[in-house]
Amino acid sequence: MWLDRVKAVYKDNLQINWKNFSLEQNAFALKQKAEGTQSDWKVWEDPNANERRSLIAQIAAEASRSQGEDAYDRYHVALLTARHGGDGRAPLNDIDVLVKVGEEIGLDGARLREDMKAPELAMKIGKDHEEAVSLGIFGTPTFLFESGNVAFLKTFIPPVEDSVGALEAFLATASQRSYVGEIKRPQPPWPKGAM
Q: Which residues of the chain have pLDDT under 50?
């Protein structure tokens, strides 16, 4: 959402290559590790995928690519807005809601619904997730820079007038300064006045 604002300013000078990461799979793996147990369960292989927290939304986003990369970009932002923006938290496992989000931005809803049935989409999500884990990624959003640096960013959505400045400040630290390991605020959960 705020990166979309930045992209509108930077245009082709900012390339964002979104990848999938399953917070549900990651939470499952962490629980297994804490319990000292092992399981081969993978959310993207689960036959009850429509009951999973956000796998169906990731599948819908991947399916939107069949209508073009621009369609994917618009759908990705629309999904984030539906989940985290203004009118509340849209359920990410309701196919009808996911199709409606697509239709509202001009996608062919029937085609999106049909394309979501392709089993290779779930496998792509799994591949993206496993690649991320191999890089040490544990949450979203995590940025992987051309320099090879990887950085997780925990933030509220910056004010509109500071969207570009917030990204530029983050990039100045995270993309080139691998010696900066962590910055934390000492006033949990957030500094006063941040929200």
A: none
